[in-house]
Design brief:
By secondary structure, the protein is mainly α. It has helices at about 5-65, 70-75, 80-90, 120-130; strands at about 95, 105, 135-140, 145-150. The radius of gyration is 33 Å and the shape is rod-shaped.
């Protein structure tokens, strides 16, 4: 079959064209794949960064709302302001725990006498940190929640 020069030249040309097409296709695939992966990585990184900023702003705004209650917590009846902040901030519950083991919560009107807020992690961690904190936790109902706690400290 490849006995003539013409057949050999045609075969060589076909082989060269096939090799060129395969090499070009493979190169294009590698370049497009790499470019696609880099674009996906950039988009994911950007999304993660944007979400981190949004979560940081959300936490900061909630912490500011709770921090604004420091003076209110020491008044004889903090409930009206606690309810207002709960509504304005979209909080599930807003409360105050006192060192004398008493507490007041907007969504828990009949607190059992055995309830000790000073034994709760939100109380202990806020006192220990000495500043506003956010503590994620799973509630007894299985819901994922975030507790915002601010220690109320005044000079005696």
């Amino acid at each position: 079959m490849l006995s003539s020069i013409r057949a050999r030249v045609v075969c060589a040309c076909i082989a060269l064209v096939v090799f060129s097409v395969v090499a070009s296709t493979a190169t294009s695939y590698v370049i497009a794949n790499r470019s696609s992966e880099e674009a996906i990585d950039r988009n994911l990184t950007s999304d993660v960064d944007n979400r981190a900023v949004a979560i940081g702003e959300w936490v900061a705004s909630k912490a500011r709302m709770i921090s604004s209650l420091q003076d209110v917590a020491l008044t004889p009846d903090p409930m009206p302001m606690l309810k207002q902040v709960a509504t304005a901030g979209g909080f599930w519950d807003v409360g105050v725990g006192y060192p004398n083991k008493s507490a007041k919560f907007t969504d828990w009107p009949d607190i059992p006498s055995s309830y000790d807020p000073t034994s709760r992690s939100w109380y202990r961690n806020a006192v220990q940190a000495g500043k506003p904190i956010a503590i994620p936790y799973v509630s007894t109902s299985g819901a994922l929640l975030v507790a915002f706690a601010v220690p109320v400290m005044r000079d005696a």
